[in-house]
Amino acid sequence: MPFITVQVFEGRTVDEKRKLASEVTKAVCSTLGVAPETVRITISDLPKENLSVGGTLFIDKA
Predict the structure, then answer these.
(1) Apex CA 20: angle with CA 17 and CA 25, to 5°?
(2) Residue 54 sits in which domain range?
(3) Does 36 participate in catalysis according to the annotation?
(4) Chain center to CA of 59
(5) Domain count across the chain
(6) Catalytic residue of the set 2, 24, 34, 58
(7) What CATH number should be reported for the domain holding residue 41?
(8) How far apart are CA 45 and CA 35, in angstroms?
(9) What pLDDT, in 10s, does the model give residues 6-58?
(10) Where are the alpha helices (DSSP H) in 1-62?
(11) pTM of the predicted model, to two decimals?
């Protein structure tokens, strides 16, 4: 039973998340040869102030 965690910056619509879940499920099933009902996906909204690269928060990037 595959467990997939996806983190995206907040602001995605429910429809975007639906499409993401569908496409990721298809890819996992195709790659691992599992049934769609066995795939578990968690989508986490990540505020830009909670991630930095090179010491700079994404909220501070231009």
Answers:
(1) 125
(2) 3-60
(3) no
(4) 19
(5) 1
(6) 2
(7) 3.30.429.10
(8) 26
(9) 999 999 999 999 999 999 999 999 999 999 999 999 999 999 999 999 999 99
(10) 14-32
(11) 0.86
